[in-house]
From TrEMBL:
The keyword Membrane applies. It comes from the Eukaryota. It comes from Malassezia arunalokei. Residues 106-133 form a coiled coil. This is serine--tRNA ligase. The gene is DIA4. PROSITE patterns: AA_TRNA_LIGASE_II. GO terms for molecular function: ATP binding; serine-tRNA ligase activity. The keyword Amino-acid biosynthesis does not apply. Pfam families: FLILHELTA, tRNA-synt_2b. Its EC number is 6.1.1.11.
């Protein structure tokens, strides 16, 4: 069977044998007619929401709805009246037939019964057509919006979080959050400058063990269908496994999904492949059957098959879940899937089409959740936290935006975007998004839950989030850690196909240990090397460190006092430091001042008058203090060298006592 992929127009029907197979599957049942939360009297609010989203709104259709619904009410009342008459006629005919009386009356009633069947059939058809038209009009209206959504274009989006997880990054300018995207960009304009030399394509081409081949994609398929080769292909696998690992750690059930979906399912999810957005959709044409069966398209995201997986089911609001059968899961339900995303993305987009930033097929790890209505807002924040954990683990500079009304899709009630700084592009680029679709998809896909208190069924809420859009993460990593070879955060090391010691990769430790942690590690290493226990070793080092400070201090003070050389040594050290290490001169001056204050306190306690005539021992003590401070590396080395012997001696003394 040959498949023809097309974008921009309606696909051809699915083969008959697919429908025959579906009929043999006992559990299969088609999707019911979609439900819509909007009512005819909500047209004014729907108009406001559509205009705030900068979406088209069919005014003529909305204006026709009141008359259409009035006509529907009249037709339904008429149908009820005719059905009642039909019941009466139907009950009278057998009675007359049995009594064999008034044949003319019997003939009239049978004629009326035939007439009622015809009229009711035509009336029901008109009601169905009007209902379908009303549903079609209201289905085109977008979802409602959260009251906190910023109104306006993309620049009005609100920056709510900014975090720099890059290794060794300098501090960013302070900015008061939340703030508008426009104000944030203005504040960061000088701190985040474009670095054209970090262009990801140039860096990829320079790598000896991997690269991006855009030209081969032209031969195979067309523009923006790249090949990833060597270490860059391995990076794709590592990122996928890393994202799935984090998702599963947070309780998401892994699912393997089809990349081909029915256009009807995509439309019910809010992607509407049949309208002007069809330029973004690839349709599948089998060229085998044109009998009007459902068309197929390539999924733009794994969200679509995941939503279809939970369609037509009613779930328990609370209770134990089964990981093996989605029908037996309880809410909240968390699913994750690795799939291929297909985006036709018709039209030139300038710099956005360069390299890996905007391509037609890419790997993507998706998060999907089903909750009760009162839990969906909290679930959105939870999804965002999982996304932030993933991005922080990759050591990227990122920001989280509460997206403005004009950036929301038809199904989104509220949406967060996570953008990473891409130095080579000199711009922020979206790498993740998380949306709360409330009951928009659930009504269209018959996703319900059973309320624990009332026992009644109600529509659930669905949410989706991108865990990892692989090409853009690759782009951000290449441009953030630009190097002569592939440099990656150590969080990806366990997932690297080449093993943790692959010489082709430079692993970057994002979380450098603290001074205390480094000291603990050194102490343990010394204890293992010398055979001493860590606790006595630490005590011995502390004692030796103090002794190597106090003993030289008083010995030097005595010698310098005897020679009267305290002032001369202080002046010599001060002049030498000013010439040799000007940057350390201020620190030396602070030591001298501190030593002088200490010496004066000692002189006061001992009854000496240091204010009228500085005593020789006072300046000598100050000079000794400075010399001891300068000998700190020598003191530490001596303490470390003598610590094992001293520790063993301390242990022997302790055992004797």
């Amino acid at each position: 069977m040959a498949f023809l992929l097309r974008h921009g127009r309606w696909g051809v029907a699915c083969p008959r044998y697919v429908r025959a197979y579906a009929q043999r599957v006992a559990q299969y049942r088609p999707l019911p007619d979609p439900s819509v939360a909007w009512r005819a009297e909500d047209a004014a609010e729907a108009r406001r929401v559509a205009l705030q989203r900068h979406m088209p709104f069919a005014e003529a259709d909305a204006e026709a709805l009141p008359a259409m619904h009035a006509s529907l009410a009249h037709m339904r009342a008429e149908r009820t009246k005719l059905e009642d008459e039909q019941k009466r006629v139907g009950a009278t005919i057998p009675m007359l037939a049995q009594s064999r009386g008034d044949p003319e009356r019997l003939m009239q009633l049978r004629g009326r019964a035939r007439e009622l069947r015809t009229v009711l059939r035509e009336l029901s058809q008109r009601i169905d057509e009007a209902s379908a038209r009303s549903l079609e009009i209201r289905s085109a209206w977008p979802n409602r919006m959260h009251p906190d959504v910023p109104i306006g274009p993309e620049s009005a989006s609100r920056v709510v979080v900014v975090h720099d997880a890059r290794a060794g990054a300098s501090a960013l300018p302070g900015v008061s959050l939340p703030c508008s995207q426009h104000d944030f960009d203005a504040c960061m304009e000088q701190a985040l400058m474009p670095r054209p030399e970090r262009d990801h394509l140039s860096l990829a081409h320079a790598m000896p063990d991997g690269g991006v081949d855009m030209a081969a994609g032209l031969t195979t398929t067309g523009p923006s269908w790249p090949y990833l080769i060597g270490t860059l292909s391995m990076l794709e696998h590592a990122l996928c496994q890393y994202a799935l690992h984090v998702a599963q750690k947070h309780g998401f059930v892994p699912v393997s999904v089809p990349d081909v979906v029915k256009t009807d399912v995509a439309e019910r999810c809010g992607f509407r492949p049949r309208d002007e957005a069809a330029a973004q959709t690839y349709f599948v044409d089998t060229r085998r059957d044109t009998d009007g069966a459902a068309g197929l398209c390539l999924a733009g995201t794994a969200e679509i098959p995941l939503a279809a997986l939970v369609a037509k089911h009613t779930y328990e609001a609370r209770g134990p879940s089964s990981m093996g059968d989605v029908r037996h899961m309880a809410l909240p339900m968390r699913l994750t899937a690795l799939g291929h995303a297909f985006r036709a993305e018709a039209g030139a987009r300038g710099a956005d089409t360069r390299g890996l930033y905007r391509i037609h097929q890419f790997s993507k790890v998706e998060l999907f959740a089903v909750t009760t209505p009162d839990e969906s807002d909290r679930m959105l924040e939870s999804l965002r936290e999982v996304q932030q954990e993933m991005v922080e683990g990759l050591g990227l500079l990122y920001r989280v935006l509460d997206m403005s009304s004009e950036e929301l899709g038809a199904s989104a009630y509220r949406k967060y975007d996570i953008e990473a700084w891409m130095p080579g592009r000199g711009a922020w680029g979206e790498i993740c998004s998380a949306s709360n679709c409330t009951d928009y998809q659930a009504r269209r896909l018959a996703i319900k839950y059973r309320d624990a208190e009332s026992g009644k069924n109600a529509y659930a809420h669905t949410l989706n989030a991108t865990a990892a859009a692989i090409p853009r993460l690759q782009l951000a990593l290449l441009e953030t850690y630009a190097s002569t070879r592939l440099a990656l955060p150590s969080t990806l090391r366990p997932f690297w196909l080449g093993g943790p010691k692959d010489p082709r990769v430079e692993w970057i430790d994002l979380h450098a240990p603290s001074a205390i942690a480094r000291a603990q590690a050194q102490l343990r290493a010394m204890a293992q090397r010398t055979g001493a226990k860590p606790a006595p070793l630490l005590l011995a080092f502390a004692i030796l460190h103090e002794l190597t400070a106090l003993v030289p201090l008083f010995v030097l003070a005595f010698v310098l006092t005897t020679l009267g050389a305290g002032d001369a040594i202080l002046r010599s050290i001060d002049a030498a430091m000013l010439h040799i290490a000007p940057s350390e001169h201020d620190r030396l001056s602070a030591w001298i001042d501190r030593g002088s204050r200490t010496a004066r306190r000692l002189s006061h306690r001992l009854g000496a008058d240091a204010s009228t005539n500085p005593a020789a021992w006072l300046t000598s003590l100050t000079a000794s203090y400075v010399v001891v401070k300068l000998l700190l590396p020598v003191r530490i080395a001596a303490s470390l060298a003598l610590a094992p012997v001293t520790a063993r001696a301390l242990v022997r003394c302790w055992r004797r006592t």
